[in-house]
Structures are given as structure tokens and as C-alpha cells.
Design brief:
The chain is α/β, with parallel strands linked by helices. Helices cover 35% and strands 19% of the residues. It is globular, with a radius of gyration of 17 Å. 39% of the residues are buried. Bound molecules: adenosine-5'-triphosphate. Adenosine-5'-triphosphate binds next to helix 1, strand 4, helix 4 and helix 7. The site of adenosine-5'-triphosphate has 18 residues, from helix 1, strand 4, helix 4 and helix 7.
Length: 221
């Protein structure tokens, strides 16, 4: 089976995540997208709602898509989780499957700060998607990717829709243009703090969950 692994804090999950996952699934012909909410992420700790809430919201958000599944592999750990360990565990869990590690250009730029990035890039093929806040050209100087700048510019300009680049590890990094959606969890949290509407930025089920549990509005957060 061809499985996309989509990790994130999902704090909260929103339509940017959902649409990105759907377009990656369709473009690469994946049979499943595994959403992996981070347990205690090493790099993001401020404003982080309890893991059970982020897990439940992600579960609600993906419920209507039969290709989407959720994994508690990181959530169930009490210690910090690292993608390199998660991918190794998932490879052991799905020995006959081909895994694709999905992440945005912003996350890919941050890779040098992750645990054992060389090892991670050698373990699995990547799918890199652009966000309006971070275009493909921004990853031109990544130490983990071999790609010509003009290819990245062609992607950003929409001259080409995807490109199979090579990671320095020798693995593939599919660079994929998706519908640009400038929604971020940071923006959603800021709106909620100001008691403003978040309608149409995330599924109604997630919005209702946030309201009924009073998330992201506590003073001091
Ligand atoms: P925050 O604003 O709190 O940093 P976020 O909206 O970036 O959160 P994350 O959970 O950190 O969401 O993201 C998980 C993954 O989804 C990352 O690889 C990120 O690049 C990607 N992603 C998030 N939002 C979008 C979007 N609007 N379009 C494409 N990819 C996205």
C-alpha cells in the first residue's frame, strides 16, 4: 500500500491541512493518508492545547474522508516525539507499504533543527508542498535537497505542477503545487483569542469542539 504520513501539531487542524492531504493523495495515487498528531512536540510548546483535544479534533476533521486515518503513535507517548523515530516505527508497522513523508515548505526549511535529519531523509521519500507564506524558491539552499533554482521558480510560477527532485540521501522528494490556502493554526488561535469567528477556516465539527471545550481562549495563552 502507498501511504502518506502527515505529521503536525494540528493545533487546531484546519482546511489547509485537509485540502493539502487530499491533493497529495490524489496526485500521488496514495491509498491512505495517516494523520499523526504530535504528542509533546520538541519545537512547539507555546499555546499547545492538550494532546487529547488535538487528537479528537483531528479525528473529527477526517471522519468524512475514507482515505484519511489517524495514528496515535506520537500522542500515546509521554516523552517527546521525533519524526525520525515515528517513521522507523511506522515502517515496522507497515512492512509491505511504501511510505511518503508529507510536509510543507516551512517545515522542510526547519529540518536542520530536527533530530537526525540526515537519517530521516534516508528513511523515507518526501512530498513537499508549498504554502503561501513559504514558496518553493525558499528551499533552494536546503542542505538536504538537490534541485536547480529554475525548477523551483517554475513551480512557484505554475509553469510546472510537480517535480521529482532528489534528496541528498538519494531518496525522492516530490515537489507538488497545491491550491494555495493561506490558513494557519496560528491565525486561527489569534482569532479565537479575540473572540472572532473562525468559520470556514476549519470544519464545523472542529469549530463546535473548540467552542464547547473553551479552547484557545484562556487568559495567559
Ligand atoms: P502553526 O500556525 O501553529 O505553526 P500550522 O498551521 O503550520 O500551525 P502544523 O500542524 O504546524 O500547522 O502543520 C503540519 C504540516 O502541515 C506542516 O508540514 C505544514 O507545513 C503543513 N501545513 C499547515 N498549513 C498548511 C497550509 N495552509 N497549506 C499547506 N500546508 C500546510
Amino acid at each position: 500500500m502507498r501511504i502518506g504520513v502527515f505529521g503536525g501539531t494540528f493545533n487546531p487542524v484546519h482546511y489547509g491541512h485537509l485540502r493539502a492531504a487530499e491533493e497529495v493523495r490524489e496526485s500521488l495515487g496514495l491509498e491512505r493518508i495517516l494523520f499523526v498528531p504530535a504528542g509533546v512536540p520538541p519545537l512547539k510548546s507555546s499555546e499547545l492545547e492538550a494532546v487529547k483535544h488535538r487528537y479528537s479534533m483531528t479525528e473529527l476533521a477526517i471522519a468524512s474522508n475514507r482515505f484519511f486515518e489517524i495514528s496515535d503513535i506520537e500522542c500515546k507517548k509521554s516523552e517527546r516525539s521525533y519524526s525520525v523515530d515515528t517513521v522507523q516505527e511506522l515502517k515496522a508497522l507497515y512492512p509491505d507499504s511504501e511510505l511518503f513523508f508529507i510536509l510543507g515548505t516551512d517545515a522542510f526549511m526547519d529540518l536542520p533543527n530536527w533530530r537526525q535529519p540526515e537519517k530521516l531523509t534516508a528513511l523515507v521519500d518526501f512530498v513537499i508542498i508549498a504554502r503561501p507564506s513559504c514558496v518553493f524558491a525558499d528551499i533552494a539552499n536546503s542542505p538536504y535537497l538537490e534541485v536547480k533554482k529554475d525548477v523551483l521558480l517554475k513551480l512557484d510560477q505554475g509553469i510546472i505542477d510537480s517535480y521529482n527532485a532528489t534528496l541528498k540521501s538519494g531518496r525522492t522528494a516530490v515537489l507538488l503545487r497545491i491550491t494555495p490556502m493561506a490558513v494557519s493554526a496560528t491565525h486561527i488561535r489569534a482569532l479565537l483569542q479575540k473572540n472572532k469567528s473562525v468559520k470556514y477556516l476549519l470544519p464545523e465539527s472542529v469549530e463546535s469542539y473548540i467552542i464547547s471545550h473553551g479552547l484557545y481562549t484562556k487568559t495567559g495563552q
